[in-house]
Amino acid sequence: MIVYAESSAVLSWLFGEPAGAEVRQTLTAADFVVTSDLTLIECDRAFHRAHSLGELSPDKFVELRSEIRRLASGWIVLRLSDEVVERARDSFPEEPIRSLDALHLATVLHVRTSDPDVAVLTHDGRVRRCARALGLQAMP
Question: pTM (2 decimals)?
Fold first, then answer.
């Protein structure tokens, strides 16, 4: 199975949230993990935000940034192509959808052209609803 790792799910794992264990298990079991540059950017921005607010120690900040780089080295990381950007600018079956979520969904739709069985791993309710409306499997 190919799993698209959306940032809300990845962050729940890295920040040690209760649902994070299921995310880790799903990603470990996947044949391939695909994500977007956007997921890596969103993760790094979340780490910077938490650190600047005093929610992450300097050591934990460095640890999490290293961990996302280590994880991504084993994933297929897609660039935000012109095709993805154009699709993200179009409407989605479950509006309103936020701009960054539209980019994630457009990336998954691009992946689906090569593998129709790609699943979206997300903890974002809007992304989940829209993914399902697009005929995608949404996990968990």
Answer: 0.94
